[in-house]
Amino acid sequence: MSPNVKYSLYTLGAIATIGFIYLFAFYLPQLFIPESREIEGIVKVGELGSSLVPISSKRVKELGMNSDISNLDIEIDAEIQAKKSNEVERLIFVGDIHGHYVEFRKLLRQVKFNPETDHLLVMGDFITKGPDSLKVLDYLIDHDIDCIFGNHEYYVMNNYATFHGLKSPHFMNETNEMLSIKDGGFNSDPEFLLAKKLQPKHIKYINQCTIIKKLGQVPFHKFNDRKDLKVGGDSNSLPGYAVHAGLRWDLSIEDQEPIECLEMRSYIGPNFNETTDDPDTDNAVSWSKIWNSKQKIAAKKDAKIIYYGHEARRGLNLRKYSKGLDSGCDGGGKLSAMVIWLQEALNSKGKPVTLYREQVHQVSCK
């Protein structure tokens, strides 16, 4: 073979190789990369937007919940009041799903979830780790499910911004003023791989999740003798808030630090005015333990009940002023939901009362 022919073949081979590299490394991947969407400011504090309408004991039973009310002699079967647009029969809070779509749907069937009469709130970390993050996202979007922004949503959004060359996630306060945050430098391979698959509708949904959600009145189990309840009063309820990880006891709701709300697990003693995401830190004490001790001594007008996730290590953790709902589904534990409703009843004197009730439901995870 002549040198000219060899040179021509080498040249053609080099051109073909470059063409294949471009085809597989640049052109074809672009065909499968979803269109990007700009990341907007993440709202720190939001309103639930729904309120509970009282339901009868008969209706409570129909929904598969415990209708028994201790120390109240007579039940009432009054007709359910006509609902206003923002009134619902139940609030349902679901702990960390972590992409476990099958278990999530099983839990919704167990609680007889009805999007027409229930307000469902997922407590953050609904994606990553598990096998079906996109399925979970699509279901939440299709059924207009409310959400709390968790640390894993934050990590994925950071990776999404890096992959598409966008501005990183930032947090907004209630007046839409940008808040400064620490640079977390979060990049883990599974979250980066998920971020590359996200479509604009997924980013739009995650982006509208809030850090903290004001819930209105929620059950407060104060009285052992329910006969002490006042007619039409709210003596068995306190203001409730939902957040992924926790809240600082020494800061107002509006002054909470977003990253702490996403990541905290413990307070650091002896003053307990500093948080950490590492429960093995010296002098670290569970944030919920300190929160409950501080709420116990607070005036009732200042006390709050917090619903949260994030702490799979401690599992389902129900205290007087805090309700931890991450029961370790991704680690083979359970997926938990807290169902809250307002029940009509008559007290022992035959006078009508409304009672805030709550009940935990769980399904096992693989």
UniProtKB/TrEMBL annotation:
Residues 90-228 form the Calcineurin-like phosphoesterase domain. It comes from the Eukaryota. Keywords: Membrane, Transmembrane, Transmembrane helix. InterPro entries: Ap4A_hydrolase (IPR050126), Calcineurin-like_PHP (IPR004843), Metallo-depent_PP-like (IPR029052). SUPFAM superfamilies: Metallo-dependent phosphatases. The keyword Signal does not apply. One of its GO terms (biological process) is polyphosphate catabolic process. The keyword Cell inner membrane does not apply. GO terms for cellular component: cytoplasm. This is Metallo-dependent phosphatase.
